Amino acid sequence: MDSSTPLPTDAHDVARLQRLREEVASLPGLPGVYRYFDAQGAVLYVGKARDLKKRVSSYFQKDHGGTRIGHMVGKIERMETTVVRSEAEALLLENNLIKTLVPRYNILFRDDKSYPYLKITGTRGATSGSAAFPRLAYYRGALDQRHRYFGPYPSAWAVKESILLLQKVFRLRTCEDTVFANRTRPCLLYQIKRCSGPCVKLIDAADYARDVANAEQFLLGGEQEVMDALQVQMMAHADALQFEKAAEIRDQIGALSRVLHRQAVEDNTGVTTKDADILAVRVEGGRACVNLAMVRGGRHLGDRPYFPAHVEDATVLADESDEGGQSASPEVQVLEAFIAQHYLDGGVPPLLVLSHAVDKSLIEALSMQSGVKVSAQHQPREPRRAWLDMCIQGARIKLAQLLAEEGSQQARTRALVDALDLAVENLDTFRIECFDISHTAGESTQASCVVFEEHRMQNAQYRRYNIEGITGGDDYAAMRQVLTRRYAKLAEAASAGTARLPDLVLVDGGRGQVSMAREVFEELGLDLSLIVGVEKGEGRKVGLEELVFADGRPKVYLGRDSAALMLVAQIRDEAHRFAITGMRARRASVRTGGSRLEEIAGVGPRKRARLLQRFGGVRGVGQASVEDLASVDGISRELAEEIYRALH
Question: 485 φ, ψ to 5°?
Fold first, then answer.
């Protein structure tokens, strides 16, 4: 047999498994981390072990057949291992590799550590100007030591609720420094008793500083200390016959009392720490939800759900390959994966209240990595029990909502496939790309391409195309250009087997747009049956749309209440929204000189549009301070400094 001739598949598999088993035989019985790779070099799985040899050999000691672990083992072409000194070190390394390599068969949580904070700005010790009157602000990004931050909070809503509460009780300002410096009379917030009017000197710096200190004390959990201090101040003003000031403080005490009454579940906690995270996990139907509730300063700030990927594959793998013979439940596996991926980079509170007990070595690793003594409870007493019960209920509700939504989306995908009589082997990989053209009287023409796959919109795969070299307002020419740019190279890659064309191409328009798409696909040698136009119905009324086909089939009306039409409308509307926002950002760039911002690395269309909208144009952006720039949503401190340098 010629040496270049590949071995038969069975022979190749036998040789591959034999080689892997020989590698396993040489492994040490020490703690470590192992990685499995397929023939293309993609990582399949990352795992840790107290005993590398025993753990890894469990994958290759028997025939796993058609199980999930069998499918994975059948793809393993090579392995890598790393020996470490302890199980805790193995856990840390495993977590870092999972985040870096994103393996196919591991439980994966989206790496979203960009939590919002409540910020109290201002320079300490200042006696004049806006710095003497710190402001409350919503903040997301890198923390600056010159300001005080409270949180993190689970959501933007929770931050805004806290700001509203502090406005009612302590009447701190929320206006920008530029607004503060140019006020000549108090704003509406002063009239409705949400601000004490420091901009026009209706409160002196000392009294305002006292309010700031009380607000900070409240946020840190010192509600009773704040109440006591306010009582003392009120009596002092009354004794000095300053009845108006005493009345103001009385109103503060009343507002604070009402707040504390509403938060009775956080009172009388009996906990030794006022900062804690509560974690509850629910696994059902091959999906999982970890619900994270945050308690800061003794106050329950709300919760936030996390939905990991690869739950079914990863939990089955752990069950079938566990070296101790007693694998943790899927709930524990998911919870441990979340704790490792979420906290091992830092930001862990001293107390975790858990719905399930986790491995002690994981908590030890958290303490070692963060420098904070972390304790964990999974059978707490009141009131921690009340926190946990609420968190468990939240996980149950949010997972039920997810399963219902996914079931509905799958039904809509199936309805569309059936309505168009498409031959689709795997509904989960059914892919739709939709195009739309947007411009303002021919100005700043831009095309959008949005992607629907796995029963949902894939935002990360959206693309915008600036249309150049056509007559303004010629939508047909714009559609020809975007389709040619999108599919010319993709058609070549698909014919070579290195890329995949979509199963359906939607264009927002009737016969004219479909005819243009047909010409492009004929030139590229692509299947015309992929193209479907979404033509507006009589009177352009929603629900009367008809589908127009490029391959000559008659038009189809799906029906106003059709699940298939709902899906088509959702995708079409998303393409329109994406095109409109891109066109507006481009138009703003042209009209205001936004090209100066385009040259700054890290400032994309969305951030550029936010900056231009916030400051009224490039001139306003150029006049803004680093602090003002960093207060814009999505602009970090580092990026704000880079923008400031580029414009000065």
Answer: -65, -35
Domains plus CATH for the chain?
9-85 (3.40.1440.10), 117-266 (no CATH), 276-400 (3.30.420), 427-585 (3.30.420.340), 593-646 (1.10.150.20)
**Residue whose C-alpha is closest to residue 117's, from 144, 147, 156:** 156
Which DSSP string corresponds to 573-626? HHHHHHHHHHHHHHHHHHHHTTHHHHTSTT--HHHHHHHHHHHTSHHHHHHS-H
| Secondary-structure percent of the chain, ordered helix, strand, coil, rounded to 5 | 50, 15, 35
Rounded Cα gap, residues 497 and 134, in angstroms:
61
Assign 99 to helix, strand or coil: helix
d(CA 549, CA 309): 36
Question: Omega of the bond prior to 383 within 30 degrees of 0, cis?
Answer: yes
Q: Which of 50-64, 127-141, 587-601 has the lowest mean pLDDT?
A: 587-601
User: Which of 249-253, 498-502, 621-625 is the least confident region?
Assistant: 249-253
CB 545 within 8 A of CB 573: no
3-state SS assignment for residue 480: helix
Residues in the chain: 648
Placement of tokens 């696994």 in the chain: 283
What is the model's pTM?
Answer: 0.64
**pLDDT one-digit tens code per residue, 346-400:** 778 899 999 999 988 889 888 888 888 899 998 888 778 888 999 999 999 999 9
Identify the H or E element spanning 14. Answer: helix 9-25
In the predicted model, what is the mean pLDDT of the chain?
Answer: 81
Nearest in space to 307 (alpha carbons), one of 185, 399, 178 = 399
